[in-house]
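Can't paste images in this forum, so I'm doing it all in text. The chain is below; anyone willing to post the predicted C-alpha cells underneath?
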Amino acid sequence: MERWETAVAVDKKADDHASSIVSEVPTSDLKSNRQRLWARVCVFSMFIICVLGAVAAFFCWPRTPLVILGGRADNVAVTRWIPENTHATMRATWQVNVTLDNRENWIPTHITRLDFALMDSLTLKKFAFGSISSIVLPPRRLINLPVVFNIDYAPVLMGNDPTMQNLYNACGPQKAGAPSPALNVVLHVAFHIFGIIWVPTVAATPPTGGFLCPPS
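Text version of the structure:
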C-alpha cells in the first residue's frame, strides 16, 4: 500500500513538472511559430500560383504566326498603265497566296484584322495594299490565304521614279519572247490580335528571292 501511494506521488510530481514546463513556454514564441508557419504557407501558395500562371501563359498566350509569301501574283483585274503604254500610273488588282504558319500556337488565334503591304525591296516604297477582317486561325496548322492586293501607284513627282521603273520593267508590257524579270518585293503583315493592345508586324520575302507579276 505504501509503495502504491509512493508511485502515485511520483506520477503526480511528474505531471506537475510537465505542466510547469508547458506553462513556462512564452506566448510570444507560440505566435512567432504560427507566423513562420503562415509565411511558409503563403510562399508555397505563391510558388504554385506562379507555376500555374507560367504553364497557362505558355499554352494560352497568342504567338505571332510566321508568314510565307508565294512567288507570283494572279490578275483579278487587268493591269492598266495610264496613259496607255507608259508608266505614269499603275492600276491593278492582284491575288497572292500568303501562308500563315500557326504551328507555334496551342489554341485558336483570334485575329480582328490583317493588314498587308507589298514594298519594293530596292526602294523601300509600298505600292500594293490588302486587308482581311475577323479571322480565326486554327492551332498547330499552316493556313493558306488568298489575299487581294489593290495597286494604284503614281510617282509623287513626275519623272524618274525608281519604284515605277521597277514595276514597269517587271510588270509592264513585255516584248514578244522576252522573259519577264522578277520583281524584288517584301511583304509586311500587321497582326491585330484580339486581347493584345500592340500590333506585331512580320516581314516576308518570296522563297525564290523574286516575285513574278501576272501577265499584262
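The longest strand covers residues 66-82. Residues 91 and 152 are 5 Å apart (CA to CA).
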